[in-house]
Amino acid sequence: MRLSLAEGVALRCPEAEDARVEGPGRSLRLGVLAPGVRAVFESLADGGIQETEVPAAAGSDASLAWYWLDLAGDGGLLSWTVEERGNLLMTLTPASASFLRRRATFDALVPLQLSRFAHTRMAAGHAVLDCPTVHATAVLHDRRVVSLLFDMARPTLLARLNQFNTGIESVTLRELVRLLAETGILVPEGLDVPASEATLTALRQWEPHDLLFHLRSRGWGHQTRAGATYRFRG
């Protein structure tokens, strides 16, 4: 999985005492960067870096680099891209400062299914996966990802997915499922799962289209707001 700065985000003054990452309406002050951290963030700004390459690039500063990467990701400043043999499959980007990637929540032994709030739409010539409960959007670069989403319409184990004809290699498939699960686009299902959409009273009261409009029209720093934005002024 490749990490990179989200669209419109830039690294400022990496060699100064006030190094920072800045994007539209959000920023993260890094201060004085350790050499390994600076190397990682310069790679983020120069096309990205594979997650597996972070320890080597950061060296003895690896723990500190992961700390800043987590803050930048939760602050809506990073994008995650899943690739397979050089082909882009999906790029996920936070849509507001409320985004949170829940690392270490993915369990391959727990059945997962697509959130009932998730939907696809077209934007700038791309198919986009959107889900108002997770404050993130995912550009679908490859039609095989759409096939995966179709298979996830009902609770499914990762091992079972490997038997379906998704056409995606097992290692890459696991990366896709892990990213979607850690961001909440794939959710555990069932009344025996305390955090499932079936048991959270607040979510049960919302219809997907109502929650989508509520989120977009209330501000909350979302990138695709609707209502009182005066976008057709003049």
Automatic annotation (TrEMBL):
**Pfam families from the xrefs?**
ThcOx (PF22767)
- Domain Cyanobactin oxidase ThcOx second stretches: 112-219
The UniProt entry, under InterPro entries, shows:
ThcOx_dom2
Q: What is this protein called?
A: Cyanobactin oxidase ThcOx second domain-containing protein
